[in-house]
């Protein structure tokens, strides 16, 4: 996918990320921390790769990419170490928005500009900007697709994400925004958190299906890892194609399963667009003193099915 200097965001919100002049880009060498929640997740690995590539394009930037290992204390320690080191700025994707708020506040108090990505930290007012996806709209896109697939109603299994993570909360809210309007038609027969984890998604789906006399019409998951775990459970029961499966994140593996007809859909939230926009915003402030026009910048996720695979950001990675 080509990244445009202008990205259209949700509703009427829009932001033109600044195209940095190469001569200005070389004026000041910058050291920037990129705090990632867990590099064991392919989604976050892609984010790290994309921001590294953007840093090379801009020039004059040393990135310190830290792996939070899905531990808020570890990510907190990474941020505190970067404060001690005296980095020029930070791009932070918090493992847990509440748990990471004190460390981010420390950075802000130390006059280090912080741009958050993916997960918004509302408790720290001094953050320079947030660039992310509108996860509520992403959840709504899942619900709207279910309505389209089953206009006369359906039974649903809902695999929720990591407790305390704002994307999990918002995606679940968006899904319920849609299906709760017609509770007589769309009934959730199972709903629990599988923590954004593939193995938990598999185990939870196996357990849930074992307790049902009839499988649900749809399994909806708050990320593709859980959906791919659920896919294994469906395969074991010969339910591929009989139960619709909708994920979130548009991972290459999920896109491949959609192309093969094993998964129904996923939600594209443009993680590359998020991190590139965040770095551009931070560098523009550090080198030119330009504050973003909007403190909260949200990309609108879209549902990816077999019919519009070409709109997926990572389609070229599908093997």
Strand order of the largest sheet: 4-3-5-6-7-13
Distance between the termini: 17 Å
Number of helices: 10
Structural class: alpha/beta
Shape: elongated
Beta-strand residue percentage:
15-25%
Keywords:
alpha/beta, 6-stranded parallel sheet, disordered N terminus
Set down the secondary structure blueprint.
Layout (H helix, E strand, L loop, with lengths): L5 E3 L5 E3 L5 H4 L4 E7 L5 H17 L2 E7 L4 H14 L3 E4 L4 H13 L4 E4 L11 E5 L1 H15 L4 E7 L5 H14 L6 E8 L4 H13 L7 E4 L2 H13 L7 E3 L5 H8 L6 E3 L2 H18 L7 E4 L2 E3 L15
Parallel strand pairs: 3-4, 3-5, 5-6, 6-7, 7-13, 8-9, 8-10, 10-11
Antiparallel strand pairs: 1-2, 12-14
Helix pairs in contact: 2-10, 3-4, 5-6, 7-8
In short:
The protein is an alpha/beta fold and 319 residues long. Helices cover 40% and strands 20% of the residues.
Walk me through the structure.
The protein is α/β, with parallel strands linked by helices. It is built from ten helices and 14 strands. It has helices at 22-25, 42-58, 72-85, 97-109, 135-149, 166-179, 198-210, 224-236, 252-259, 271-288, and strands spanning 6-8, 14-16, 30-36, 61-67, 89-92, 114-117, 129-133, 154-160, 186-193, 218-221, 244-246, 266-268, 296-299, 302-304. Helix 6 (166-179) links the parallel strand 8 (154-160) and strand 9. The chain is elongated and about 65 Å long. The model is unreliable at 1-20 and 22-26 (pLDDT under 50).
